[in-house]
Specification:
Blueprint lengths: L1 E8 L6 H12 L11 E7 L5 H16 L5 E7 L1
Antiparallel strand pairs: 1-2, 1-3
């Protein structure tokens, strides 16, 4: 079972990296860009486990280590 975890800053948290990229995009000719938010993608190979076990494990991993839930949101997909 494979999992993809997407971690992004919460909307209420400033994203200076996203702001810098937005400014750069505007400077190189993309004036219509209204917002850029940066996040991270984490890919996990969980081996042979059930969908239920995989979902439980990935949720626990996100809560304990992969995301700082004070300032970040996360979501995941199982394949």
């Amino acid at each position: 079972m494979k999992a993809k975890v997407y971690v992004t800053l919460k909307k209420s948290i400033a994203d200076p990296q996203g702001t810098a990229i937005q400014g750069a995009l505007k400077k190189i000719g993309y004036p219509n860009i209204e917002e850029v938010r940066i996040g991270k993608l984490i890919e996990l190979d969980l081996g042979e486990v059930s969908q239920e076990t995989a979902a439980q494990q990935v949720k626990e991993m996100c809560e304990k280590l992969l995301a700082n839930t004070v300032i970040e949101d996360y979501r995941f997909e199982l394949e």
